[in-house]
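Field: COMPLEX_INPUT
Field: COMPONENT_COUNT = two
Field: RESIDUE_TOTAL = 518
Field: MODE = joint
Values follow.
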Amino acid sequence: MTTFFNLTLAGLSSGAVYAALGLSLVIIYRATRVVNFAQPALALISSYVAYSVTKDTGSYWLGFAAAIVVGTVLGVAVERLLVRPLRDAGELSAIIATLGLLLVLQAVSGMIWSNEPHAFSYAFDFRGRFSAADLFAVLAVVVTASGVLLLFKFTSLGLRMRAAAFNPEVARLLGVRVGVMLTLGWGLAAAVGSLAGMLAIPPFISPTTLDEVFVFALTAAVLGGLDNPLGTIVGGLALGIGLSYVSGLLGPELVPLAALAILVAVLAVRPAGLFGRATARRV
Amino acid sequence: MLEIEGLSAHYGLVRALSNVNLKVEEGSITAILGANGAGKTTLLRVISGLVRASEGRITAFGEDITTTPTDRIARSGVAHVPEGGGVIPELTVEENLRLGALWRKDRADRAKALDEVLELFPPLVPRRSRAAGTLSGGERQMLAIGRGLMGRPRLLLLDEPSLGLAPMVAAKIMAVLRDLRADTGLTVLLVEQNARSALSISDYGFVLGLGEVVASENAATLLADDQLRHAYLGF
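Field: COMPLEX_OUTPUT
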């Protein structure tokens, strides 16, 4: 019984990270129908910046703030410079472009910060069963995710962003600056992604640190139906806990396999996601 | 109010509008009539900037809007209710309505506009917090027109508001438009296939045939012109 309890707690904090990175994918997918494969690279670059800032100033939180700011700026830049020019070239073009950007940015980060892993500090003490660092991860994600959901549901900015995502032409006819909404969405998503990166990366950062986490985050997003923020958060937490059971009861080497098995199973059985609404897009 | 001079528009190589000249007087209801494919919908889409004109000029409220972006045209006071209404089914009825006024700074007046629109279309009141996708065809059209009115437009562009509706519901919507014009002096440009019902509330009518204006007359004159009615209006 205590094993289960401990595994659940351990899964909760990693699940929160998958949920946050998954959420950053969903915000973008919902607005532009693009799966942003460059998201882990954006989080990686911003975490590397945090690493440098923390190293130079000695302050973890200065580095943390720098990561969020750099992440936001990178998200805005990717939308403006890469995704928007490809808007008329079909959805697949933008997706392939983000995949290319992922490889380029990983290579570039290796050139700047070297491919050797560097020690990357936690926000708080990480020792123990459910450490302060774990608690911080869960709280940070819960607060951020609630903030994003409340923004979408209850503010007029959120309403405009949703309208621009659901029906850009009608949104334009109602005076919404659709381009601005898309850019804001990418900035917001990349900020959330950078938060996920900061939580996922410790204890070591290297250009490929986030690859595995990204697979889990993508699985969480697919579990949620790819355009359902709340479903993705639930999916991320469930996946974290489930993989923690797999790791604790069957062996840690099976975790990536289990994640891929879940991904394939969901796509085969419920392609709209566990929480996908069948009526979603029509009319 | 709205003036269109020598307007042409193309979809690729296909010419959809050719040398259209049209004038809408302030406070009038003007009907655009014609068969399927005559260019009626394209004309509205060019006015609101969704389709770019290849030739000609559009002036609204004394300003040249030929190349103005759609969202700016909307914020200048042109509400375009597209064919089928363009209701966003994922949003609630109230969210759809609020969306129509969000660009206006005056919060208090936005709330007032919401009350007025709900008063204008009482069937929407009990459905306020339901997803717009659950509405019937007539309710959707009311929601779409209501959303257009939320921005307190000076010019309302309506694309086939009675399409697919029961005759009773269509007549009700026409009556609402007539009363609105009488009460608020709203200017309406109304695209309709149902020429008789459109002309019954209109001051002027323009008849389009294959992208060209083939007749422009007072509504009463058009209704009385048997030849034209048979040739273009089908009744």
